[in-house]
Write a structure and sequence with these properties.
alpha/beta, TIM Barrel
Length: 577
Amino acid sequence: MTVPATASAYAVVQEALAAQRCVILDGGVATELPDETLTGGPQSERLWGIRALASAPGQVKAVHRRYVDVGCDVVTTNTWGLASAVAAEDQRPWDDAPEPVTWLEVARRGVRVARQAIAEGGRDGRVAVAFSLNADLDGEDGRETVRLLTRAFRDEAPDLILLETLSLVRPSLYDTVGRLLDTGLPVWLSFRRCRHGVCGVYGQHWGGPEGDAFGRAARRFEEMGVDALLVNCIPPDHVDGMIGFLRDFTDLPLGVYPNLGYLTSAGWQFAEGVGGEEYAAMALRWREEGAQIVGGCCGVTPAHIAAARERLAGTAPGRRRAEPGPAAGGAAGARDRHAEPWVDDRGRSLYPLRVPELVADRSGADPTPSSFLLWRHLFQHRIGEGRRCLDVGCGTGLQAIQLALNDAQHVHAIDVDPLAVEDTLTNAFRNGVDARVTAATVDLYPWVPDERYDTIVACLDQTPVDPFRHASSHRPVDYWGRNLVDHLIRLLPEALTDDGEAYVTLLSILSQERTVDMLAQHGLRGEVVDFAVVPFGEPFRESQDQIERVEGLSDAYHLKLGRTEAMVAYLVRMTRR
C-alpha cells in the first residue's frame, strides 16, 4: 500500500525549483541538540541524536523551529540513525525512554515534532518535511524496515523521503530505492561523494577514481523516478566540482549540504573560522556551479543557513565548471606536475624510488629483507662508484645491478646456483647495465679469487642446521649457521684491494664475538653501518629449535615482540686493519 504525499508543502518546493529559486535545506539537527540529550544512554556515531526523539522530543522540536524561523524550505526529521538502530543487536537508543516506545513510534514522532515546529512558526504548508534515513537501510533488514515504515506513514506522513550519507552504489541500492519509491512519496538521494570518489566526513577518500560510474548511476536513479540528487556530510572544500560533474549525466535537481563538524572521541569538533558570511560565500560558489538545493549537515547552524539564504535570494543556478583540488593520497595528487619532487642529496628521485627491475624466471629466488637492507645502503651512499666490484651470492642480481647503476667500473657476480646466474644476467640487461656486469656459477668453498676487488658485497645464507636432522654431504653441516660467512671472511684478505671494503649482512642469530674473532684472525676490522629488524621467514621457523641451541651456547639472539619473532640484520663494513 502506498502513502500519498502531502501535496501542498512539496508542491512549494517543486514550484521553487521550476522557477529557478534556490531551495534551502536545514542544517545539522543532532549537533544543535543540548549535550544532555546525546550523552545519556547508549550512543555511537551511527545513532547520534535519535535518542532525543524518545526521551526529549521537545528539544528536537526547538531545533526544527530555529531552522523554520530562518526561512528553510525543507526540514529533515531527526531519524537519520533509525535504520541503524533497528538493525542493532544491543540496546536501542529508545530503550531507556521515560515511557515505553517502539521504533515505529519514534518514526511517527520524528514527523510529528517537525510539523509542530513548522506550524508554531506560522509556515504550515510552506515548509516540507523530509524523513531522514541513512545508508544502513541498504542492508539485510532494509526491506522489512521500509514495509513497516509505510504503516507508520499512514498516521504521520512526511512530504518526502531523504536517503542520505550513501556511499557505495551496490546493485542492492537500486532495489532499496525502488522500495522507497513504491511508498508513493518523493525520494531524494544524497551521497558522501566528491569528484575523487567516495569521501568521508574528514575528507578522506575510500577508493580510487571511478570515471563516470557514479554519473551513470545518477542517470539510472533519474530514470527510476528519484526526484533529486545531493551530496552531503563531506567537508565544504570537497563539494567543488561535484554539481558540474553530475549535470553532465542527469537533469535531476542537484543539491549540496556539507558538514562543518564531526564526532571524535573528545566530542564534537567544529570547523574554526567559518561563520555565516564565510558559509554564504561558499553557498554562492555552489550556486554558481548549478546547485538548486543548498543546506548543511553536522555543525551547520541556523546562523549559517540564514546567511546562505540571504546571499542566495534572487540568484539563478549557474553553469560554472569548478576544478576540484587534488585528492589527498589519490591519483590526482600524483599527477600534480607542480609538486616539488622528492630527491636525495644527489638529485636522484625518491618518489618513485628506482629499485632495479627484477625477474626470477629460472631460479625462483626472491630478495630477502637482509638483501634489501644491503641494497638500500648501496643506493643511499652510491657505493661502488668508479670501482671494481664483486657480488657474492648474487641471487637475482639486486646488489650487482645497483652497483652498476652507481657507475661501478665493472661488477662480477657469483652464485652457486646456475639458474640464479642466468637471472642476474637477464636482469642486468633489463636494467641497461649488462655491458658492466658479468656473472659465473661459483661454489664459494673451493673458489680461489683470481683478482682483487675494490668493493665486495655479500648477503649469504645464515640458517643454523641440526646435524641430526640433515644427512651429511661433502659440504659441512652448518651447526652455527655461519659457515659461508666465516669462509668469506677467510677469503677477504686475498679478494680485497689494499683500500678495499666489503659490505656483509649478518643476522643476530650469529655470534658477534665469533665474528669479531674471525675478523681479527684475518687482519680485518668491522663496523656496523646500518641495521634493520627482519621477520623470521619459513627456513628460520623450521630451524627454531637449532637457533635456540645456538643462542644458548653463544651471544647470538633474536627478538620476541608480542607474538612476533624477529631478528636484527646488521650491515657490517669490513676493511683491512
